[in-house]
UniProtKB/TrEMBL annotation:
Residues 40-291 form the Protein kinase domain. It holds the Pfam family Pkinase. ATP binds at K69. Its EC number is 2.7.11.1. Residues 356-389 are annotated as: Disordered. This is Serine/threonine-protein kinase PknL. It comes from Enhygromyxa salina. InterPro entries: Kinase-like_dom_sf, Prot_kinase_dom, Protein_kinase_ATP_BS, Ser/Thr_kinase_AS. Residues 363-378 have a biased composition (Basic and acidic residues). The chain crosses the membrane at residues 308-326. Keywords: ATP-binding, Kinase, Membrane, Nucleotide-binding, Transferase, Transmembrane, Transmembrane helix. PANTHER family: MITOGEN-ACTIVATED PROTEIN KINASE KINASE KINASE 20-RELATED, SERINE_THREONINE-PROTEIN KINASE NEKL-3. GO terms for molecular function: ATP binding; protein serine/threonine kinase activity.
Amino acid sequence: MSRAHGRSPQQAAEVAALAERVAATWADEAGPRFVRLGRYQLDREIGRGTFGVVFAGFDCALEREVAVKVFHVGAPGRALAVEREARALARVAHPNVVALHDLGRVGEHAYLVMDFVEGWSLAERMRMPIGWRAITLLFVQAGRGLAAAHRAGLEHGDVKPGNILVGPDGRVQVVDFGLARLLHETARPEPSKRGGTRCYAAPEWLFEGQSDARSDQFSFCVSLWEALFGQRPWAREGVEYEAMLVEVVEPAKRRSLAGVPAQLECVLRRGLAARPGDRFATMDEVADALTLAVIGSEQRRSRRQARIGVGAAAAISMLVAAKLLMPAAAPAKARPKLPGKIVDVVGKFAPARAVVGDVGDPPARERPARSRETRARDGAALPPRVDPG
């Protein structure tokens, strides 16, 4: 879990002090450095959130790896709210929601014991080479997990890439359900006390302190927009972020991955509507719309490939047919042979050609030789010449 933005100085100080107190409680100075909470051994810190610290741990009773989140619940009402939320989350049995195994309390600190997920957060996965279809389908899994929690009456309150984990098998699990919202004493907290990560939060939460499942949808669409286009959909961030949210109906389009279809962008724009009533009714609808956008793109690509394949096959058939119909090429420096019947006819005229071969005007180079032959033949036929005495 990554560090949340927008924490008040008091919240940050509480988390830092909590981490220091936990780190200072070593079971054995001479042996391995770890903390024990009941049957759970805390090995190392793996993340900090708005209100707590997450540790990689080990369940000594069941001998399995776990993740343990420790947070402060000293204020009146917070402990009861956390217990109520934890019981509700424990009833959500969904492959895309991290499983909750145990809830405990030590003094003013409560802890939750969850599955330990090997792999990466989507914040880390987004920085790796990955196509838009693959990243969209990962978010679809997260959307299904959010929908299951919403059906159980749970709101996440801090949807962002850092709170969505991807295991080695490609399974996505959403973590940190509901804690940011439930740790407030009032229904409409002051802006400085509102939890969550501000650059992903919905306008109704930032401006009015009110939220519901559609607020999670807004944060989800901000996260997917960032994964696809390289930046969150706001023209600029920082101190003017709240002012920019007034105009989120038309988010600025940033650098995109190649081939992101317009249908997918339209889904995100609807989820980013400034008014909750203009968004999708449920996260299931968002996940369905994203899936259809991917399927539609695959179908269009398949049709294009089919057309290219048919065209290539037709071109090859034409080349083969042309090759079969063309006569064989004559060998170099060889005169083409005539059909047999023509050779027979020409052969019958050979004697006549011998008789009339000298008729006509022979080529100049042959003329002297043929004249000498004629004179020699003619001279042999004449009687011997007698010189007059």
